[in-house]
């Protein structure tokens, strides 16, 4: 597969994932009805962003250096963990009674959720810093991506409004990064912005 095809597919995945994340945030905020369909959108949103993150790293791997690699790996691991959490939350726990949900969320699952959040938070910060330094990706998009997803990573300890605001701002950054990736898919190397 050529880089251009990979970038195009990853950009489309990012656009879809960003939109699905916005729908999930709207559902949590009560702006979109809660039903099986709206619950089912959250896990694929996270899964799609794994491809987008990979392409974003690949298009700047030389310029972002070791810090970029470390940020990519941690961000990818964090997103993978979030996919597992989203799947558990929306495909399993929503069908359990409140006591069973609470037992999973506060019992043996809690340390796992906290580790995933910390890994994701650290990955976003390092990937964002390396990307900013590399200068390949649009810095305005990074200025949305990093603080937005950092706030989203604090889901377990932040107020709901901060978490949801983070999802919206981070999704705007993902959409912008995906659009930039899509624009560069027809060129041999991404354009610096």
Q: What would you say this structure looks like, in words?
A:
- It is a single chain.
- The chain has 193 residues and is mainly α.
- The protein is 80% helix and 0% strand.
- The protein has 8 helices and no strands.
- Helix 3 (42-58) packs antiparallel against helix 4 (61-92).
- The model has no long low-confidence stretch (mean pLDDT 90).
Give me the secondary-structure topology.
Layout: H1 3-28, H2 36-40, H3 42-58, H4 61-92, H5 98-106, H6 109-134, H7 139-153, H8 160-184
Low-confidence stretches: none
Written as H for each helix and E for each strand, in order along the chain, the element string is HHHHHHHH
> What is the approximate shape?
globular
Query: In this structure, how is the largest beta sheet organized?
Result: none
Assembly state here? single chain
DSSP strand count: 0
Spatial separation of the terminal alpha carbons: 25 Å
CA radius of gyration: 17 Å
Arithmetic mean of pLDDT: 90
Helix content: over 70%
Number of helices: 8
Structural class: mainly alpha
Features of the shown structure:
mainly alpha, globular
How would you concisely characterize the structure shown here?
The protein has eight helices and no strands.
